[in-house]
Q: What sequence folds into this?
């Protein structure tokens, strides 16, 4: 059993057994038929993954790492808010008539500021500090810009990354205000674990611990039957993850730069409704 499976299964069991329902309150998300999308949730879930031991990808439901990395690079490398520059349809429901998601995610990472060392955006600042100021305790990004929230199609869920170098090891913390456990947990974990590997490689470091902090970890009401099916399955062992070692520039990574060996996973035939 992969460690990511252990974490996912335990999180879901905890939410279903000890979680708090919001059925007594009005909620923003809606199902396609217009019905309110209620959730059961836990507050303040913290998961830790040792990237030196294994890559955190679940096997109780097949995950598509290259598609996840494509979205990650759309945000962190292209710094885009245009869904036409994305090779999947994960953002279609939130795009406007021009195909953008407003001043969200990649847009925020691409805003440049003047520093003593020159003009940089948030990603460039992280890359610079990892190489030149690895002892800094200020290496972080933040997408939750209150000045621009009104112009975002969706307030950022995964909104902040903090990087910390210990010796030759790069550790990272992902802060997430909201996590849809069924549709997004496995996706986000493997994305930001891959990002940590990428930033470590181009900075001459080794990926260490990835910590995932979730303020509101929830399961939607219509997702419960599928979640119960997944957590009853027998997981497989974790696959071996590798990066193209020839890449030394973060902006040269592509989805083809990541590789999994020996990945076995269960398929999921059920159609998962999405709350918007």
A:
């Amino acid at each position: 059993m992969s460690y990511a499976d252990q974490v996912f299964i335990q999180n879901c069991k905890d939410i279903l057994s000890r979680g708090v329902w919001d059925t007594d309150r009005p909620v923003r998300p809606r199902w396609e038929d217009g019905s309110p999308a209620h959730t059961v949730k836990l507050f303040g879930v913290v998961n830790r993954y040792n990237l030196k031991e294994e890559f955190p990808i679940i096997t109780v439901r097949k995950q598509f790492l290259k598609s996840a990395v494509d979205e990650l690079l759309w945000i962190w490398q292209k710094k885009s808010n245009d869904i036409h520059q994305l090779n999947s349809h994960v953002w279609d429901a939130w795009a406007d008539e021009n195909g953008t998601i407003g001043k969200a995610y990649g847009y925020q990472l691409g805003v440049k500021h003047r520093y003593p060392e020159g003009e940089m955006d948030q990603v460039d600042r992280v890359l610079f500090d990892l190489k030149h100021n690895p002892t800094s305790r200020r290496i972080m990004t933040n997408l939750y810009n209150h000045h621009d929230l009104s112009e975002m199609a969706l307030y950022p869920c995964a909104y902040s990354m903090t990087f910390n170098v210990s010796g030759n090891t790069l550790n990272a913390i992902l802060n997430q205000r909201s996590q849809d456990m069924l549709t997004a947990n496995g996706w986000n974990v493997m994305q930001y674990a891959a990002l940590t590997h990428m930033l470590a490689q181009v900075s001459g470091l080794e990926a260490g611990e990835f910590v995932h902090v979730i303020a509101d970890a929830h399961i939607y009401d219509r997702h419960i039957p599928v979640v119960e099916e997944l957590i009853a399955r027998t997981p497989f062992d974790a696959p071996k993850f590798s990066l193209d070692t020839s890449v030394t520039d973060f902006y040269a990574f592509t989805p083809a730069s990541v590789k999994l060996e020996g990945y076995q996973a269960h398929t999921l035939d059920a159609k998962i409704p999405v709350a918007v």
Summary: The CA atoms of residues 4 and 249 lie 29 Å apart. Strands lie at 20-21, 39-50, 113-115, 118-120, 140-142, 158-166, 169-180, 206-220, 240-243, 258-261. The mean pLDDT is 96. The radius of gyration is 19 Å.
